[in-house]
Amino acid sequence: MFSVALIVVVIFLFIPHEANTKVLTSNLERYEAKHAWASSINPPSAETPNDADLACDNNIFTRWDSNHDESRSLIGFDYLKVREVNIIVILWEAAYAKVYAIDASNDGRYWREIWKEHQGKGGMELIKFVHHIRARYLRLRCTQKVNNDWGYSVFEFQVFGEH
């Protein structure tokens, strides 16, 4: 799909690679079955569906949109088995989180925070980990909105790692 190809090109252009290190090989969303869930969704309409699964469908024209009354929201993803993750890309709609965290889990019950952002900028946010993160589940915890009239809205939550 065009959106995935564009993001991969952007990542390879802006992330330095060393000759003797492993590099990302694929967007895990594209090759693996997954399930997504969210704490809420804004009431959808026929013209604008906004389920959690739309944040990981490799389509930048669909999105997850949280309930606008909810000050804190989360969206989570199941990759069906433990993966090695080295890059996460979040493509936000204008309703982005200024403050958010990303948590990882191997069993869906016990979570560990792997990233904390205090100055989210929206648009495309690229997170590169120095050491690979091993996880089956990832979740995005949004804790401060850019605009209190909106919820949180993610076009794509893309995870890159190694096969």
Describe the structure.
- With 163 residues, the protein is mainly β.
- It contains 2 helices and 8 strands.
- Strand 5 and strand 6 form a beta hairpin.
- The two termini are 20 Å apart.
- About 11% of the residues have low confidence.
> What's the alpha carbon Rg, rounded to whole Å?
15 Å
Supply the number of helical segments: 2
Shape summary: globular
**On the 0-100 scale, what is the average pLDDT?**
83
N→C terminal distance:
20 Å
pLDDT < 50 stretches? 8-25
SSE order, one letter for each helix or strand: HEHEEEEEEE
Secondary structure: elements and pairs:
Blueprint: H1 2-14, E1 26-27, H2 28-31, E2 35-38, E3 64-65, E4 73-92, E5 97-105, E6 112-117, E7 124-145, E8 153-162
Antiparallel strand pairs: 1-8, 2-4, 3-8, 4-7, 4-8, 5-6, 5-7
Characteristics:
mainly beta; 2 helices; 163 residues; eight-stranded antiparallel sheet
Question: In brief, what are we looking at here?
Answer:
With 163 residues, this protein is mainly beta.
